[in-house]
Amino acid sequence: MSSVLRPAVSLIVLMTLITGVAYPLVVTGVAQVAFPEQANGSLVYDDHEKVRGSELIAQNFTGEGWFHPRPSAGAYATVASGASNLSPSNPALATRISDDAAKEKVDNQGPVPLNLLTTSGSGLDPHLSPAAAEYQVARIAAARNLPRDSVQQLIAANTYSPLIGPPVVNVLALNQSLEALPSQSR
Prior knowledge:
- This protein is mainly alpha-helical and 186 residues long.
- The protein is 45% helix and 8% strand.
- The protein has two domains: 2-36; 41-179, no CATH class.
- A hairpin with a 5-residue loop joins strand 1 (43-45) and strand 2 (51-54).
- The longest helix has 33 residues, at 2-34.
- The radius of gyration is 23 Å and the shape is elongated.
- The chain starts with a helix and ends in a 7-residue tail after the last helix.
- The mean pLDDT is 87.
């Protein structure tokens, strides 16, 4: 019995040390050297070096003077991230989308872009399409007493094209740029 048990226990201990200790330490070390900002959460700081959030996680901005992100099925909590898993035939999904469309609707601007009505797979997507950001310009310009052109220039300055996929706007970066504009009315 001991001839079978000893190698089995030794193999478990060895594999635990390799896969549970050595490998994570090596991967963490390589990440800290090669990609330190990303390895530490892609944190965004304000002018006072206070952490305002992460480039990778959406935050809920409410109020007329802010760009609104996509809805979140998990209330923007990283622990509860995930999709709502409501099917298109579910009345609860139709009700939520209808309510969100009524909240986001801007008169004389056509239908609300889908980015502002549908959740992402994780429920934490920090990006909007430039069209969804543009849709909010009139509301934000009116709420902050800013010219529309100033708000549109912020969108253009915060729009980037990833290696794969369409151009996107990071809502946190966009709202930080908006906050930095002088003479705002809140």
